[in-house]
Amino acid sequence: MDSDEAVEKLRGWFSGRLPEGWFEGRPEIVLDREEIAVVGRLAVPAPAEGVSEVERAAAVEGGIQRFREETRERRVEIAREAEHRFRRKVSWGVAVGDETVMFTTLSVPVMTRLRQSERRVLDTLVAAGVARSRSDALAWCVRLVGTHTDTWLADLRDALQHVDRVRASGPDLGS
Question: What span, in angstroms and rounded, lies between the C-alpha atoms of 86 and 80?
Fold first, then answer.
């Protein structure tokens, strides 16, 4: 099963399991080898006339917190079912307007081999107080690259999905 098909299957399963009215539209499903992230869109609170930007932001934050508390028990139940069925951890989040807030996320250790010049970059970040450890420094670097290259990474992911589709439509060499 290619990644597009896997995401479609997950989206369908979650759409069938999630209570109506939780989200506007279908949730976004982000899948990797260890984790399924389910991000649903919440309605932006309707502001009263003359409300300041500070009050509007506080209303969004309060709505996110209310949703998180009111749905916690049911989200845990659905996540347990999904984890058993799909053999991956489930993380939850919501999007309101331009803001996305993850309630839970999975941190997975990743081993890598770095040359001295690369280790020195991490050590400089630690010495400068940007990170507490080499591990934190590496995570910081990955977040920084991800933030500044979203479009490029999205194009790369699209290209990989295209490769998966072409590969799947090719001849079966297993026989």
Answer: 10
